[in-house]
């Protein structure tokens, strides 16, 4: 059956379905299977990066069968006066990470700047291991030297919304992932 998707208008832009919810769920199940295999005999601490991760985290965690904990953090952007770049400060982490097997959950990795910074901050807290699970990776834009162990979909350099991802605050509630309509 050919599916014809109706374009979705969010703010000033039109979007069309790019990855449907069923394909997202199938992909997440394979990722969870791999994590369950890799973490046999261990008890990882999943750390989700809000806000975008809320749907991915919920669906991934339902498929995790090894004993595990889950926590969420936020990254607050502020302008570092000493440099020109945007610095993202980690807030909301209450757990002691020392000796823990941490799995960071992220909705999308674009340039990798955000994840690189977060990865360094978490490593400094001396967990036993830190791995990254991202649902989406903009593979042509990603430039950082950080290991992305679990990647759901490698996507081209196009702005996407839905399934947690927003365009200026809107679109997070959409069940499917949409891309900007050319
Ligand atoms: P990075 O630091 O360049 O990897 O950007 C990562 C952050 O940018 C993500 O956590 C998202 O908040 C945001 N982002 C990057 N690409 C998109 C997109 O296509 N849609 C929505 N948000 C995005």
Give your account of this protein's structure.
It is globular, with a radius of gyration of 17 Å. It has a domain at 45-159: Rossmann fold (3-Layer(aba) Sandwich), CATH 3.40.50.2020. The mean pLDDT is 92. The protein is built from three helices and ten strands; from the N terminus they run ββαβαβββαββββ. It has 182 residues and is an alpha/beta fold. A six-stranded mixed β-sheet has the order 5-4-3-6-7-8, sandwiched between helices. Strands 1-2-10-9 form a four-stranded antiparallel β-sheet. The protein has helices at 21-38, 54-61, 113-123; strands at 8-10, 13-19, 45-50, 69-79, 86-91, 101-109, 129-138, 150-155, 160-161, 177-180. Bound molecules: inosinic acid (IMP).
Name the overall outline. Answer: globular
Number of helices, where a helix is a run of at least 4 consecutive DSSP H or I residues: 3
Rg from Cα = 17 Å
- How can the largest sheet be summarized? 6 strands, mixed
| CATH topology group of one domain | Rossmann fold
Bound ligands, each once: inosinic acid
Helix vs. strand class: alpha/beta
Task: Output the CATH class name of one domain.
Answer: Alpha Beta
Query: Low-confidence runs (pLDDT<50, min 5 residues)?
Result: none
């Amino acid at each position: 059956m050919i599916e014809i998707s109706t374009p979705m208008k969010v703010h000033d832009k039109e979007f069309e379905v790019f990855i449907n919810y069923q394909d997202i769920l199938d992909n997440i199940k394979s990722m969870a299977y791999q994590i369950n295999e890799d973490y046999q005999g261990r008890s990882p601490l999943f750390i989700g990066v809000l806000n975008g991760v809320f749907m991915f985290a919920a669906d991934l965690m339902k498929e995790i069968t090894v004993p595990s904990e889950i926590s969420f953090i936020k990254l607050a952007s502020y302008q570092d006066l000493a440099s020109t770049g945007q610095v993202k400060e980690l807030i909301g982490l209450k757990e002691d990470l020392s000796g823990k097997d941490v799995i960071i959950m992220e909705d999308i990795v674009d340039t990798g700047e955000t994840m690189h910074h977060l990865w360094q901050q978490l490593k400094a807290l001396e967990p036993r291991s830190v791995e990254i699970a991202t649902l989406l990776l903009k593979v042509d834009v990603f430039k950082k030297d950080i290991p992305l162990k679990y990647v759901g979909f490698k996507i081209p350099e196009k702005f996407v919304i839905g399934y947690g991802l927003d365009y200026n605050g809107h679109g997070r509630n959409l069940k499917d992932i949409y891309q900007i309509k050319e």
